Amino acid sequence: MSKESQEVKFSGFLPSLPKEKLLQNFEEAKQKIDVESEDHKEIWEEFSKAVTGCICEIVFSPKISNKEDSDKASALLKNYRDDALLINPKFFNKWIYDFRKRFSSLLDFWKNEMVAKELGPLWTGDFELFDRFDDPEPGKFYQLAVCESPCLEEVVSAVSTASLKKISLDNTLADYKDNMKAQKDIDINDEDAFTKIFTEVREVLWKLIFDEPALSETKAKQAAELLWAYKVDACFRSPYQYNDWIVTVRDELVKRKFVDFWKIVVDQELGLIGSKESDYFDDMDDPEIPEFYKIGNDNLKMESK
Known about the structure:
Blueprint: H1 3-7, H2 19-31, H3 40-59, H4 67-87, H5 89-101, H6 107-115, H7 138-141, H8 148-160, H9 172-187, H10 191-210, H11 217-237, H12 239-256, H13 259-267, H14 289-304
Helix pairs in contact: 2-4, 3-4, 3-5, 4-5, 9-10, 9-11, 10-11, 11-12, 12-14
């Protein structure tokens, strides 16, 4: 283990902490992980062991009958699962099967948290990393011998009732994520359907950012979260559309002198998608990402004079 990985400690995952504090510690711990580091995989696994160890301690303690503890464990598991999707899904899937083996009782937690919230293995319904030959088939995962029929019925029901809805301005991120998940359940290969979702989310983002003369802090946070989620999905499905559109967003931000939101775009790297984020690009056609931000910064300075 290198000096760098030894310096990263993940000691904030104590089962006794309240849910909000645990989730805060989770986010803060993630910030310690440098994705560019040569030890990134090793450090992520150390982080994963700390998180999953905490989840197990909560779930398999005598206090799990406490609803508060159940909520805490499932919330931490969901956050970890969401991040594992893009970083190391196979590590997560190996652990989640080991986790399942420990359920000989605790049927309430299994049914109400694991099954109802679909916290089992990552599969093509979450991300196209898996193909037909190595897809974990989550339906089988949820067939615990002690609750095979009810659990499977819930999984099948969740898929069969999947549907899309209009993205509301009050609940933008959740609605967008629900639509993406629903479409993956309906037909993960229907590119036209995903294009419609992306078109709608761009329209919603434009309204959030530009419908008012000034952008409130609340709206800015809401828009930034939605923009980040859209960019992540666009990396794997339509980066060219995203790149064309984000240039118009940049130019409108400059025109309206929305300096604070432009700073969010820069700080969170919400600009152009390139080869580091998407396999659609190689070194020969990689967009000029630094130039994208430079143009925005330079034009804002000119507008401010």
